[in-house]
Design goal:
Mean pLDDT: 80
Distance between the termini: 79 Å
Number of strands: 10
Number of helices: 1
Shape: flat
Order of helices and strands: EEEEHEEEEEE
């Protein structure tokens, strides 16, 4: 067996990349943490520097900057043929309409002109046309009333007038007094009892057994031999007593005739641990 004192232990090795002249880059391996302000990059590995000293390697960064790596310049190539003229560009869009200029200032009001001289008096005009005849005068006042004449004979009796229009409907009369309430009718016969909502198929035991250590969470238990159970039946499970602490029944599915798969939320169960929960199995009759 090797002496543990002579076996080097892996430690953190910093790979610092820095630029150098002539197109070279330097990779310096060191066990000492570098300053992160100057280098181009810092890589961190785990390894061993046997002598404990820094190791610097030269890397080619840009061969064009190093004459030894670049090689002699090649001969200039022949001038290429002139390219064809490019297509004319599309006309540019019209410029935006400029804003209207400002309204000019109102000019000053001119001075009032002088009053002209009065014209000469015109000649006298000809005789006017004779006017039309005047309108007829107002009617004179009425004369005095004459003496009363002799009473005349009685006139013939006039015909019977037509029947007058039907009068309007009279107002509604006051409602009469309400009658007394009739006697209560006899009670009808009681209806037949309807079918039960669910049928008890029996009582089964849910056994949670740990052949290996079981962590807390969701687990399932399969029960077979349930009498009267068909695949797809709607099932309700009712615990006979309060389940142990940490246990809760979340669902029960009839997967086949007589077979029931029950899903539980259960606590941690150590190896060899057994928990039994007695439940009544009801089948829904809907």
């Amino acid at each position: 067996m090797a002496d543990l004192q002579t076996v080097p232990r892996n430690g953190r090795v910093y790979g610092v990349i820095e630029m150098a002249d002539d197109g070279l880059a330097l990779l310096r391996l060191s066990a000492t943490p570098p300053s992160f302000a100057d280098p181009m990059a810092v890589l961190i590995w785990r390894g061993v520097l046997p002598q404990g000293n820094d190791v610097t390697l030269e890397l080619v960064s840009d061969p064009t900057d190093n004459a030894a790596l670049r090689g002699p310049a090649g001969a200039a190539g022949k001038d290429g043929a002139a390219g064809r003229d490019g297509m004319a560009g599309k006309d540019g869009a019209p410029g935006v309409q400029g804003a209207a200029g400002l309204q000019g200032a109102i000019g000053l009001t001119g001075a009032t002109g002088a009053t002209g001289a009065a014209g000469a008096t015109g000649a006298r005009g000809p005789q006017g046309v004779i006017g039309a005849t005047g309108a007829k005068g107002d009617v004179g006042a009425a004369g005095a009333v004459g003496a009363t004449g002799v009473k005349g004979d009685a006139g013939v009796q006039g015909a019977t007038g037509s029947a007058g229009m039907q009068g309007a409907t009279g107002a509604t009369g006051t409602p009469g007094v309400a009658g007394s309430v009739g006697a209560t009718g006899a009670t009808g016969p009681t209806g037949a009892t309807g079918p039960a909502a669910a049928t008890l198929l029996g009582t089964v035991a849910l056994i949670d057994r740990a052949t290996v250590a079981l962590s807390a969470g969701v687990r399932s238990v399969t029960i077979t031999g349930v009498p009267g159970l068909a695949a797809g039946d709607g099932i309700v499970l009712v615990p006979v007593a309060t389940p142990p602490a940490g246990y809760a029944i979340t669902s029960a599915v009839a997967t086949a005739a007589g077979t029931l798969v029950v899903t539980l939320v259960a606590p941690l169960l150590a190896i060899g641990g057994v928990t039994t929960i007695a439940v009544k199995v009801y089948r829904l009759n809907a």
